[in-house]
Amino acid sequence: MKVVSWVTGLLVACLLAWAAWPASNSNLFPPDTDGDLIRDDVGQLIAERFAANPAANASLRQLARAWQQGVQQSETTWPQAQQQIRLATSCVLNDAVLGKAHMSAETMYHFMQHMHAAIFDTPARRARWERFDLATNSAPFEDLPLNPCVFDPAALAG
Q: What is the pTM assigned to this prediction?
């Protein structure tokens, strides 16, 4: 009986903590001194690796921005945020971007994993991502446009 009571108490505490989590936490990803909606250290990580490749740089910034903005939105807009993340991911792995980056999809995917770990590098950030991901992983896929990027990769040097 003690174990059941303890487990019940733990579940109640977890549910209360979940319910108390703020719907929007604009201070989750400071600092962003340049106003690009990406944490400065993550922007620097992208810039260091892809300074000479505007298409890869822009697509990874689109993805980083989608990740950060998505988890900070209210739960009611999370399905739309998930769609933006899917678009941004498709942009990064787009043949035009990969061609300009002179990278395989696998190599780019490894950098995306590294970038994701850098963005969600604290327990609070990881918890927010996990909550977002759990809530949106069953969201239906919408058709992606031919160019999922918010820019034209062909128009950029690389």
A: 0.78
